[in-house]
C-alpha cells in the first residue's frame, strides 16, 4: 500500500481575492451559471430530455440556423473542432485550411490526422483573409472542405470577409467549417444565411459558461454527408452518429457532463433573454470603449483597424517593456488576469460575455495603464480612463 500524499487544501491554494479574468478565456461566469454548474442530475430521463430539447432550441437561435443537427460535446472547444473535422473529413478528403494564427492551423492539423489531404492558406500576420486569395485557392485546389476561424483569438484577427468566403466556398460545393469559439454571441455569425456547414464553439468564451462543454451545429447538407459515409470516424467519443443517441434520441452515448450542460443551458438562456441584438451592441460598445481608452493612454492596438477582432483586443507591448512582466505584474498587483500571446509581441484583453461590463473595463484599463507605468512605459492612465467613460456614454 502506498501512503496518501499530504497536499494543500484548495482553500489554501486559491487566491483569497478572486482574480478578474480578462484574458483570452476562460471568462467570468454569471452567478446563475455557476449555480447551475453545481448541480448533478441523472444524465438520462425526462428532466434531461427537456433540458436538451430547450438547449437545441436556444442554440438554433444563437447559431442562427434552422438545422436540427445541434450536438454538444464533453470537451473543450478543440474537441468540437475535432468533432466537426473527423465527421466531415475522410482519408483522402481535400481540405483547405485558412490560417490567421494558431487556431486556424489547429484545424489543418486535425484534418491531416484523420487522413485529410490538407493545403494551408497562410494569411500574413495581422491581416484578415482576402476573398480574392481564397477564390484563387478554391479554383486551383478544389477542396471538398474549407476550415476557417471567424475570430482568430491568438492573433486577434477578425476575418471580416467571412460571409463572402463561406458563400463562395459553397458555390464551389465545399463543406465549410467555421470556428466561432470566441465570436459566437458576441457578433453576428449567421450559419444559414452565410451557407456554413458546421459551426463550432466552446463554453468558456463568447457564451460565458464553463470550459469543457462545447456545442456544434451541422447543416442538413453536412448531416447527409455524415450519413452517407462508408466507414465510421476514428474517434468513438466524437462520432456524430453516436452523439445523436444522446442529443436526439434521449439515450446513452457516454455519460454526459450533466453539470456543465446545465451551466450551458443557463448561459444560453441568459443570451436569449438579453437577445442577440442587445448582446452584439454591448460587446461592440465595450470593446470599442476599451480600444479607444487604450489608444488614449498612448498605447497602440495590433493590426489594421478593419481586421481587428473586438472579442479579443491585441495591444502592442511598448518598447523596453517585457510582455511576460506585464501579465505577471497586473495579476499580482491589480488582481486582473490578461493574456500574453503565442509569438507576437502583444498582450490580449478579452471582450467576451461577462468581460463586457463597464465596471470590469474600468478596473482592467486602469490596471493595464498603471502596470505599464510601473514598468517604465510612458502612458497617461487618466486620459485613457476618461476616454473609456466618454465612449461608454456615447449614445446613452
Ligand atoms: C479558445 C479557442 C479554441 C480552443 O478552445 P479550447 O476550449 O481551449 O479547446 C479554438 N478556437 C478559438 C478561436 C479559440 O479562441
Structure description:
Belongs to the class-V pyridoxal-phosphate-dependent aminotransferase family. Its cofactor is pyridoxal 5'-phosphate. Substrate binds at residue 348. By secondary structure, this protein is an alpha/beta fold. It folds into two domains: 10-25 and 275-394, Alpha-Beta Complex (Aspartate Aminotransferase, domain 1); 37-273, 3-Layer(aba) Sandwich (Aspartate Aminotransferase, domain 2), CATH 3.40.640.10. It has 14 helices and 13 strands. The chain has helices at 10-13, 31-36, 46-63, 77-88, 102-113, 131-141, 162-171, 220-228, 240-249, 258-274, 276-296, 323-334, 358-374, 381-393, and strands at 20-21, 70-74, 94-99, 117-122, 145-149, 151-152, 157-158, 175-179, 198-201, 213-218, 312-316, 336-337, 346-350. The longest helix has 21 residues, at 276-296. It starts with 9 loop residues before the first helix and ends with a helix. The model has no long low-confidence stretch (mean pLDDT 97). Bound molecules: pyridoxal-5'-phosphate (PLP). Residues 25, 76-78, 103, 149, 151, 153, 179, 181-182, 202, 205, 211 line the site of pyridoxal-5'-phosphate (PLP).
Question: What's this, in brief?
Answer:
The strands form four sheets. The protein has a seven-stranded mixed beta sheet with strand order 2-10-9-8-5-3-4, sandwiched between helices. A two-stranded parallel sheet has the order 1-12. A two-stranded antiparallel sheet has the order 6-7. It folds into two domains: 10-25 and 275-394, Aspartate Aminotransferase, domain 1 (Alpha-Beta Complex), CATH 3.90.1150; 37-273, Type I PLP-dependent aspartate aminotransferase-like (Major domain) (Aspartate Aminotransferase, domain 2). It contains 14 helices and 13 strands.
